[in-house]
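#lab-general

N.A. 3:47 PM
ok so I finally got the sequence cleaned up, no stray characters, all 145 residues accounted for. can someone with queue access submit it? mine expired

B.Y. 3:52 PM
send it over

N.A. 3:53 PM
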Amino acid sequence: MPAVLDLLRRKGRVVHTVAPTDSVVTAATAMNQHGVGGLVVVDSEGQLIGMFTERDILRRVVAAGRDPATTVVAEVMTTEVMACQPETSLDECAAVMTSKRIRHLPVRDREGLAGIVTIGDLLAQQVDDQRATIQYLTSFVYDNR
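B.Y. 4:20 PM
back already:
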């Protein structure tokens, strides 16, 4: 059963972060530049303190009528953040993401932030696994005729 570490080896460990004191505009600009739907919020020591996602922008900024230029991330970020470890199975990650209705799962190890797993990463892994299974079964059927 594949684990988070296997996924991180393939996709890399880059984690895009934002400071809690940054404006929502700054964070949204960073999300657009990096092509991501969420940023990990870290304090001055690099410790995980929250998540800031497209959903936060929609619900807590736009729908609330806040000014994104003057609203800081700390005011609208999600503070109850679920995280996983490199040894966590991808099935466990999928179960947590489904039950908690989240799309981003930071990865922590002994040194701190070690990566991030997204729902898109899990879907890509699942597609790759299914593709490999289909290839194996096709080969088995045609080689045993």
